[in-house]
Amino acid sequence: MYNDNPTLINVNKHIDESKQGEVLESFQSGLESEKKFYIESYGCQMNFADSEIVASILTEDGYSSTRIMEEADLILINTCSIREKAEDNVRQRLRQFDKVKKIKPGLLVGVLGCMAERLKGKFLDEEKLVDIVVGPDAYRDLPLLINNAEDGQKGVNVLLSREETYADISPLRLDSNGVSGFISIMRGCDNMCSFCVVPFTRGRERSRNPFTIVAEARDLFERGYKEITLLGQNVDSFKWENPETMEIYSFAMLLEMVALVSPIVRIRFSTSHPKDITDDVLFTMAKYDNICKYIHLPIQSGNSRILELMNRTYDRSWYESKVKRIYEIMPECAISSDIITGFCTETEEEHQDTLSIIEWAKFTMSYMFFYSERPGTLAARKYKDDVPYDVKKKRLSDVIRVQRQISFEHNKLDLGKTFEILIEGDSKKSSLDFKGRNSQNKAVIFPKIEGFKPGDYVNVKITSYTSATLKGEIV
Ligand code: SAH
Ligand code: SF4
Ligand code: F3S
Are 152 and 240 in contact (CB under 8 A)? Predict the structure, then answer.
């Protein structure tokens, strides 16, 4: 379950869909070479995927990676601005880097990602310890900026682009478990949800050439990966026009192309926007067994007035009709959500609507947050952040409580069922158990049996459950 405390997730683990926000770390130990970089990533899966692009660019430039910060000549921090807390975590981390800097003169520190984009040159003034600031669309410029910084010239490049998709760069899979791989299919966001900073930090939406996506998927498959997650802030609005044939590729088409890479590779995607997910996408999901029956479909609020203020462009009944359609086409499909409590002017009654939609839609899980005003957003400019902190927090705990109950009831229905599970690795608690997921993205823990390894599919019968996990046995 999520609350607004930092959560440590490693890129090599299967990251829950749309785990956007807080602390994530990724490291990699590389070959011995003269210059070493250390990179730490915060925020959403797209930021993680970007760190892999950055690692690839730096490797081409002669750097190797290290997971030991003290060993590095260059420390990079790929940052997130989604909530105030996320930015606080980064500032705190920069203080710690500064200590390393003091004992290692010549060490360079670079800030990448959304906070770099949001704060731009201010970073160099405010945070004296930072040498370079690079926004999400300017990573190709990193070698040059690093060179300049080595000569004592601090540098900033936060230009956003309408074209950059890094389509030609093969990501260096950082600390991967070799089972689950992530592919960015688009960048930016053209929606203007009033609470959200992403359109400002990531720029305009643009989709990547689908043939480069399929090539990347095939490469992952050939290297033994068994699960591919297609990433974008709003995958359903994926749209690419072939400049030669003028043919337009939709998300449903892309999904099919990737599903056809191999029937033994599972396909997932995140995030879907309720206004854009089409029947075509749902039918494509239903058609292919290897497309997981799981949709992350953030609602944000269950109340239509609040949804309007949030500029989500759908209301409660539109959302309900999407959910009905999903269950109609794929009765076994699981749906999860993102929820914000205490948005501007939200009343207690409106909050109750959010609680009731969790129950109505039967979300298997949700990422839940209290509203955090972000400078420059529509909401910050137009509305008063007038729900008291304590009320926001109380509403968040209500939402968490109800979601936990619904997750528990959902899991209860799985008792006695047998699922095909992709083994991801050891369970966190015991090396005697494996952890994997079913198609519905539920985590399943089960005792190891000789002969099975991560990347294998096994049938597991569910014998017990909590609100967060299923437990079972290989059958
Ligand atoms: N593109 C995705 C989500 C992107 S951000 C979508 O549209 O659904 C991930 C989640 O962070 C959002 O779904 C939202 O629930 C939360 N979030 C975004 N801005 C926030 C803010 N200002 N305060 C609190 N939560 C926020
Ligand atoms: Fe933010 Fe809305 Fe875009 Fe999601 S769809 S990234 S919430 S603006
Ligand atoms: Fe955070 Fe930027 Fe992702 S603000 S959630 S890292 S797009």
Answer: no
Q: Identify the structural domains of the chain with CATH numbers, from first to last.
A: 7-157 (3.40.50.12160), 177-292 (3.30.750.210), 294-413 (3.30.750.200), 418-474 (2.40.50.140)
Cβ contact 177:147 at 8 Å: no
CB 473 within 8 A of CB 446: yes
pLDDT in tens, 86-142: 999 999 999 899 888 888 888 999 999 999 999 988 888 765 779 999 999 999 999
Summarize pLDDT for 292-301 with one digit per residue, the tens: 999 999 999 9
**Ligand 3 pocket mutation, candidates 87, 202, 235, criterion most atoms within 8 A of CB:** 202
DSSP state of 163: S
Nearest CA to 241 out of 214, 212, 202, 208 is that of 208
Compute the CA torsion angle 286, 287, 290, 296 (nearest 10 deg): -30
Q: Residues with Cβ within 6 A of ligand 1? A: 20, 82-83, 195-196, 198, 233-234, 271, 273, 298, 300, 338, 340, 369, 371-372, 374
Is 11 within 8 Å of 176 (Cβ atoms)?
yes
The DSSP output letter for 63 is: -
With a CB cutoff of 8 Å and minimum separation 6, the contacts of 203 are: 136, 137, 160, 161, 162, 187, 188
CA neighbor of 372 nearest in space, from 392, 354, 346, 351: 392
Q: What is the pTM of this model?
A: 0.93
Q: Separation of 191 CA from ligand 2 center, angstroms? A: 6
Phi/psi of residue 40, each to 5°?
-125, 135
Could you give the CA distance from residue 226 to residue 228 in angstroms, rounded to a whole number? 7
Residue 111: both structure tokens together:
């800030």
